[in-house]
Amino acid sequence: MEAALVLPLFLFAMLLVGYLGMMIRCQDEVQWALTRTAREAAVEYAASGSRASASKPACLLKLNRYLGGGGLPVSLSDSRLLTRGDEIDLVAEYQVKLPFHLLPMKSVKFRQRVRTRAFTGVESRAGQGGGGNVTVYITATGRVYHRDRKCPYLKLTISQVKYSDLPALRNEGGSIYRPCEKCSEGKIFLDGQAVWVTNYGDRFHSAKTCGNIRRDIQKVKLSEAGGRTPCSKCGS
């Protein structure tokens, strides 16, 4: 009789834990898709100069594509685009239905947010008005240039963590860590295996000496920065 009473409670607890894990995974997927959508909207706005590329319908279309069309109804109605100094502020709101009724609750509401600046001042890279002689700082693998040698994005903090801890870790921008294309993609890792992450990067590395984790800083003229865009923190 005791087993008949305890077993349903045990099964219910296991179901609840499993469903909580599914909701956490859903949050991670939405956060990743939201971050990628904001970054692409910023780049496309800089390239085209059209506000339509950073509009709510365009961002919602991108977001649903990155979510894989899984049927999750996401709203961006509270988002603010290209306001307050060309800021892109994406706010995603959605509900996840519970498999059972928990008191009056039938679903759980989530609200996630990503803020970034649209790339501006790109035309000044051509060196108009003598701007090409300004000193900037670049790295061999970086896609942006920096005006400040002490920019936090140039001063990476490298941390050694366990592979099993990665799902719970986030970088300074709130992004999850994905495999480095150079040293980790396609590899199989054990739960206790050591990997390396940085405070601003969004990749984890199997080797601390990976070329994508090093910062070989070069001092060059702005006209020599190639196709790099300004750093969102110090490049404006």
SSE topology sketch:
Blueprint: H1 2-48, H2 56-66, E1 80-83, E2 87-102, E3 105-117, E4 135-139, E5 144-145, E6 158-162, E7 178-179, E8 194-198, E9 203-204, E10 217-221, E11 229-230
Parallel strand pairs: 5-11, 7-9
Antiparallel strand pairs: 1-2, 2-3, 4-10, 6-8
Can you describe what's shown?
By secondary structure, the chain is of the alpha/beta class. The chain is built from 2 helices and 11 strands; from the N terminus they run ααβββββββββββ. It has a 3-stranded antiparallel beta sheet. Strands 4-10 form a two-stranded antiparallel sheet. A two-stranded parallel sheet has the order 5-11. A hairpin with a 2-residue loop joins β2 (87-102) and β3. α1 crosses α2. It is flat, with a radius of gyration of 22 Å. Mean pLDDT is 80; it is low at 122-130.
List keywords for this structure.
single chain, 236 residues, alpha/beta, two-stranded antiparallel ribbon, 2 helices, 25% helix, 26% strand
